[in-house]
Amino acid sequence: MLTGIAFAIRLLIKIAALAILAPLIQGCIKQFKGRLQGRHGPRLLQPFFDLIKYARKEQVISRETSWVFSAAPLFSFAAVLTAALMVPWVDRSPWPFPADLILFVYLLAIPRFMMALAGLDAAGSFGGMASSRESAVSALAEPVLLLSLLTIALPGGSLHLEAIPVAANSLPLAARAGGLAAIAFYCVVLAEIGRIPVDNPDTHLELTMIHEGMILEYSGPLLGLLHFTHWIKQITLLVLLFNVFIPIGMMVESTGAWTAIIFSALIAVVTFLAKMITAIALLAITETWLAKLRLFQMMDLLGFAFVLSITALLFVATGV
Amino acid sequence: MMHWNDTLISWMGAFVLLTGFMTVVFRRFGNVLGCYRLQSIGFALATAAVGLDLGEPHLYALAVLSGVIKGYLVPNWIGGFARRLGSRAEEKMAVSPAVSLFIAGGLLLAAHIISRTAVGSASAKVDDLMIALALLLIGFFFMVSRSHVLSHMMGILFMENAVTGAVVMLSSGLPLIVDLGILFDVLVGILVMSILVFRIQGAFDSVDTSELTTLHG
Q1: Cβ of residue B172 closer than 8 Å to a chain A Cβ
Q2: A168 or B55: whose pLDDT is higher?
Q3: Domain annotation covers residue B98
Q4: What residues make up the domain containing B148?
Q5: What's the mean pLDDT when you consider all of chain A?
Q6: Helix (H/G/I), strand (E/B), else coil: A160
């Protein structure tokens, strides 16, 4: 158990890494997707420039809105950042607070709730529509998120996020239950981060948008914060997908010589980067390969994920 | 420690179940055909892995033959029928895909209970039996929930896949001559069914079975 100053340093390193990697991964996905589609794609660092641009712009807030409108991005950012810090990246050292996957799932529910309120608050027709859609999608996605993580957590008997890879002990993806749960989890990740079969992240002002619809009334620094929050959520879910289902190369709490510790840390960082590159390729290929589903077909995709996660749970319960 | 071909068998079991769930979701016939293709290839790989496990060379031959016939020839053949019939993009379904999914989940649960009572939960093969039984029931459900004649045909093919898969995964497979006979049976079955399909098309100008309510000479 890490305590005091070591824990604080670790958290600061993680926050710094999040601040760099979250926009960078968004840039990489856009760039790779552009290449796949025969375009040049935006620069890798474009998300950083976007953030700087938003920070400099003037903030316009509608007179019709209440305090919820300005507070919602802050609530979302705080909740998503806490959730992001809970997820193990390269090491499996425990988080010194009672932070388990149920807390994780509900921390991700806070931004949804706040953003749905904010979408309604501005009283625009797009905002209300998007809020209603977001609620519908999240109602379907949340149980799957919980169930697919539970499938992996169940054999180890611990709900703590950092304990799941240890409890699983081997490659959960190699077992039937793990494979099915991973597919279900990936479907939910696509829904949660608003990627193509569920939501189109590239369009604006279209009748089908979900995430963009809710943040339509925002401008300036708050809009930048919302984008940043979304990118943090994206990297967090991707890291969780890879570290829960393919927990290879992660640093074990070591007590050996410092060279051994540095060596294992190096391996952990390299595997982590390899996992992220795989994640970027996976998302870009999915987005290029699939077309957006009609709104009412969303239920088919998420229902499919739900049945898969239940099946996985059945396999775990019967011990395969 | 699991051996790698045990892992492959286990994976293919999950994979064919996945394709089984996918079949009930898709509304377009082309996607259903794609599921059949993937499922057949999954079964062929599982057959090869079982053959490797038991050291039975005739299972390799069966894997290659069923992979080529059911994974390539049959889907292409039926795809050709679909093009000739000019079937519409999305077909009529008795229940919505989401409801079908939950029914398919229920069928899996039923298969779970049946397989456990049939062979007892101690047997290592009980989950293979469950998957095969679930696919059989899902294929049957697929058949009754859709109205396109070609979907009925696909339902039979899904059920046949499940039965053959069960035979291979539960025992070391039948003698090669019997397996070849079954494969040949599938081809003849498709031939006969396709004749019937085109007769229906000729007589009713539609291959939607929900419209077959009046007598034509």
Answers
A1: no
A2: B55
A3: yes
A4: 4-209
A5: 87
A6: strand
Given a cut of 80, whether residue A253 has pLDDT beyond it is no
Q: Are A141 and A304 in contact (CB under 8 A)?
A: no
**DSSP summary character for residue B172:** S
* Contact state of A314 with B108 under an 8 Å Cβ cutoff: yes
In this structure, the number of other CB atoms found within 10 A of the CB of residue A43 comes to 12
User: If we measure between CA atoms, which residue out of B52, B54, B24 comes closest to residue B39?
Assistant: B24
In a domain, B186, yes or no: yes
Measure A265 CA to nearest chain B CA, in Å.
27
d(CA B47, CA B51): 6
The yes-or-no verdict on residue A166 having pLDDT over 90 is no
Per-residue tokens: A80? 């998503």
Cβ-Cβ pairs closer than 8 A, A with B, add up to: 58
Other Cβ atoms within 10 Å of A67 Cβ, number? 8
Q: With respect to residue B198, please indicate whether it lies within any of the assigned structural domains.
A: yes
State whether residue A246 is helix, strand or coil: coil
Q: How far is B112 from chain A (nearest CA, A)?
A: 9
Contact call for B14 and A180, based on CB within 8 A: yes
ipTM over the 0.90 cut-off: no
Whether A205 contacts A199, CB under 8 Å: no
Whether chain B has a CB inside 8 Å of the CB on A314: the answer is yes
- Decide if A176 and B22 are in contact by the 8 Å CB cutoff: no
> Number of structural domains, chain B?
1
Which one-letter amino acid corresponds to residue A171?
A: L
A175/B contact by beta carbon, under 8 A: yes
Please report whether residue B85 resides in a domain. yes
Kindly determine whether residue B98 and residue A299, on different chains, have CB atoms separated by under 8 Å.
Answer: yes
Most confident residue range from A290-304, B44-58, B183-197: B183-197
Identify which of B11, B25, B127 has the shortest CB distance to residue A300.
B25
Secondary structure of chain B: what % helix, strand, coil (to 5)?
A: 80, 5, 15
Interface touch B18/A183, C-beta < 8 Å:
yes
Return the H-helix or E-strand segment holding A125.
helix A125-156
